[in-house]
Protein: Branched-chain amino acid ABC transporter substrate-binding protein
Amino acid sequence: MRFSVKTGAPLLAMALALTACGTSGGDDEPSANGGEAGSCEDIAIGYFGALTGAAANLGINIRNGVELAVQQFNEENPDCEVALEEYDSAGDPNQATGLATQAIGDEDVIGVVGPAFSGESDTAGPIFAEGELPTISASATNPALSENGWDTFHRILGNDASQGPAAATYIQDVLQSDSVFVVDDASAYGAGLAEIVEEDLGDAVVGTDTIQTGQTDFSATIAAIRDSGADAVFFGGYYAEAGLLVEQMRRGGVDATFVVADGVKDPGFIEAAGDAAEGTIITCPCLPPEESDEFFQAYEEAFGTAPATYSAEAYDAANVMLQGIAEGNTTRESLLEWINEYDGEGITKEVSFDETGEVQNISVWAYAVKDGEIVADQEIETD
Structure:
């Protein structure tokens, strides 16, 4: 689906408030990175990730953050309107190949926010690299993604090499647990994160198990948890399975503290788990969206709901690209150079990328489910 996004919602005059290393020579002069400022005919950026499927909520959060950034940009730059192209992967790596190929063929698209998930990022990454189409993921956290030599790959949040140890630190230092059962969902994201947590917890791990995405009966896993005597359970996976798992744990008499990560930080988890969600600890390399009042208000006005997991990170990622376009970078090549050299202040962090595409400013937060809501608990110290 392709559309030029609407600009009727109240917008902030902050779309270009970021400060970057490129400079423009004026409205009609070439920018430092090539191209002509103000020349934006037939230019689009893309969103790549789930809009349907079991993890659609997380993808919609991200898409909305991108859409808000584009809305604001077009309001501030009526002579340089940018379109938004959507690539709905349903969170399925098997669909990523065709969608990435489609994005490469869409010549108007010069940058993509996404892919949203690690599995689809692994599949689509080499295609984007071959097509020289720059990407910034707001949510894919598998550490190996930046180790493939893809110059087009970037992510605007810390990866699981920081989130995993942070989760282990919280379990040991805050929960003071010395017996942890680790479960993963066999996905690139969930299994990779669970492995890192398991390694960091060491002898505190008293058992492990693997489930499958789409699974609904976890009786065997719950029996193993109960038999292990664990006082904490870490789950690496997404909110649909997490909600059912903890609900069945509580129904089966397991009262161990449930600890999960960013793939579960969504109201869909509470909807699936009901009262059993209460007390769950959720880690995320994401800033609480309410930390930026202006963004929070603008998002609510645009979409009628509060920003959620990775909306703010997606907004920052889109604005890196949009500011590059405003500076005259209207080809994939020049926009990629802009992103690689970018250094500017976003709403979630100061944004700059290292040579592998990793963002250099990282924070990990712990959230807790209290009274049926996901609320910020504390920032977790990371090395």
About this structure: Residues 162 and 235 are 16 Å apart (CA to CA). The radius of gyration is 21 Å. The mean pLDDT is 89.
